[in-house]
Amino acid sequence: MNLSYLISIPFILFICSCGSSNLSTDHQDLQYDTSRIVILTDSSGRSGIPLKLVQDDFSVIEKLLKQCIKDYNSGNNLPLQDLKNYKCQYVPILNGENQREVWVNCFCQTMDINWKSKIVQIMDGGTCFFNVRINLAKGSYFNLYVNGTP
Questions:
Q1: More confidently predicted of 2 and 113
Q2: What does pTM read for this prediction?
């Protein structure tokens, strides 16, 4: 067998694995509802350094997500559903200001996407798909985006 062929196989495998979202193995010691929530590491489009969540972060995230939904629904004819109806992908980072932040991607349909290993991105879909950023340091949410809304 050609030596250059043997050398190129590991290189090709490495290139193919780059840039994909992966399950974070750093969060296995935490307790959370894995039927509804997954923690992913993916920095594409979200500037920051991957961050490890701690147990207390889950209650803060849940509280802020519920507040975000309540605030959105109070002035909207097409309301978001109750949080328990969504699956959520958490992408925790340390942002450019050294603050702990989580991009949360929520959806009520997986569209045959392996949501526990790949970021779910859907064009349109209405209130079944939304995402928001949560700043854990400030205890606030921002950049709410609901698919298919003007």
A1: 113
A2: 0.80
